[in-house]
Q: What sequence folds into this?
């Protein structure tokens, strides 16, 4: 008999343009887009990972980073969150320094107080890097997290992000599967599930 599947919610947060959606698309095997399209509504995808002997379904929420949409992002966080992937652009110092805001937002609205953090410096393939690895590691240490250098464009360390956050999440804190994902609790490879998009950020 297969062990019961656990479900954990993970949010991707960070400033607009840091590559949250690109990282998610790369992870699910979609072609990398060189055209920037601003995220204005939530997108949820799911993947099954094995952590020890326990299958874990990650529900990965991509959230808007634009300041006009932050009330919408906060609404997503009001549902219980087990993990947060905080993403900045290594070529933009401001996105690194704003990580403090995003951590505070997660801790304020997520509610559980036990959110696991992984910090990601994206676009390491770019020559104009201004945030070094040591700064990323220092940031992660400050919040008891893990830091990973990533390139969504080159698919460098993208899989590591989600494997790491899955391993950091306390599986006992996940919820028993209630009709979500594979009916038989079998492992899938980056399986995707579409969700209703109830919230949309509209610019006036």
A:
């Amino acid at each position: 008999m297969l062990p019961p599947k656990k479900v954990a919610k993970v949010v991707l947060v960070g400033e607009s343009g840091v590559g949250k959606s690109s990282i998610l698309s790369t992870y699910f095997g979609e072609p990398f887009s060189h055209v920037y399209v601003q995220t204005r509504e939530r997108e949820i995808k799911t993947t099954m990972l094995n952590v020890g002997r326990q299958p874990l379904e990650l529900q990965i929420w991509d959230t808007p980073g634009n300041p006009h949409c932050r009330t919408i992002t906060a609404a997503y966080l009001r549902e219980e969150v087990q993990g947060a992937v905080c993403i900045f652009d290594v070529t933009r110092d401001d996105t690194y320094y704003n990580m403090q805001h995003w951590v505070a937002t997660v801790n304020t609205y997520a509610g559980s107080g036990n959110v696991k953090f992984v910090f990601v410096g994206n676009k390491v393939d770019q020559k104009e890097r201004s945030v070094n690895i040591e700064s990323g590691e220092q940031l992660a240490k400050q919040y008891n997290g893990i830091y990973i250098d990533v390139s969504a464009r080159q698919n460098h360390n993208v899989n590591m992000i989600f494997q790491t956050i899955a391993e950091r999440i306390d599986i006992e804190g996940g919820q028993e599967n209630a009709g979500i994902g594979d009916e038989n609790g079998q492992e899938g490879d980056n399986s995707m599930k579409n969700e209703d998009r109830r919230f949309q950020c509209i610019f006036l």
